[in-house]
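Bug report

Summary: structure tokens for Urease accessory protein UreH-like transmembrane domain-containing protein differ between web form and batch submission.
Environment: batch mode, default settings.
Steps: 1) Submit the sequence below via batch. 2) Compare with the web form result.

Sequence submitted:
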Amino acid sequence: MITSTTGLYLTAFLVGLLGGVHCLSMCGGLVGSLTAGLDPRIRRDPWRMAPYQLLYNLARIAGYATAGALFGGLGALLLQLDAFQIMQRALYALAGVVMILLGLYLGGWWRLIAVVERAGAHLWRRIEPFGRRLLPVRTPLQAAALGYLWAWIPCGLVYSVLITAVSTGHPLDGALVMLAFGAGTLPNLLGIGLLAGAAARIAERVWVRQVAGLLVIGFGVHALWSLFG
């Protein structure tokens, strides 16, 4: 089991980075909507477009941190229970299983994780209309608001790391775990916005998705081995 907070942050970052091909498929259209709503003169100039993309992604990561703080707070409540150690181990085990399922999904071998994503669809249906009102994006503030809202889109990758955030047993640690995860996703999603379809075309290659899937499966297997090995 990962016992240091540094280990948790590193794992969350690497899961975000390696699972970035999933981010491209889940959020690529959303980032494309952001880009399409900008003034054509801004779209043609990557340097002028960069602040919008950066604000969008920083706000998205802030949304992840908010969720991490909430789930870390839930862990703090569970810490008050006599059986917290058992609960903590169970949460680590669940996170490991979800990562394995996520890796299978990324590699295109099994799509069971899609069921987990659909579980968050009820919340997203309540949030998504607010995002639509911000389109088309005309100002940096709109880009930031849109990014924060879209942090709550149903995503098995996010859910697997949120389970780890619960196991920290502290709101601040939970927020930092999700910040590390969000930082890992940043290169891929900035690549969509600034490099148009180039990043998406790379992510569509079967071998890229399969390598990412195998590596994420490795994280899940390691987590379970640390617990039961």
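Above is the batch result. After comparison, the two runs are identical; trailing whitespace caused the diff. The chain is about 85% helix and 0% strand. The longest helix spans residues 46-79.
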